[in-house]
Amino acid sequence: MQETTQPIDSERLLAEANRLIRAHDDYIAGMVATSVTQKNGVLVFGGEYFLDEQGLPTAKSTAAFNMFKYLAHTLSEKYHLQE
């Protein structure tokens, strides 16, 4: 996959990811990507998952998971992390 994607550093990639999050129809206030790693050519994003006091998922957790999945799908086609 890296032959057809552009190298990018994590800081620039997170800025692009957060721009996409804010522009998305399913954006929820407080939704933000704070980390990114790469596994087998797929970019994996992490951030706020809106867990409750016991650390269990809430209704917003599904939206956050789906947003990070959207970012992985969209941005893995374009970029790979610089080493």
UniProtKB/TrEMBL annotation:
InterPro entries, per database record: DUF2498, YciN_sf
A Pfam family recorded for this sequence: DUF2498
Organism: Siccibacter colletis
Descriptive protein name: YciN family protein
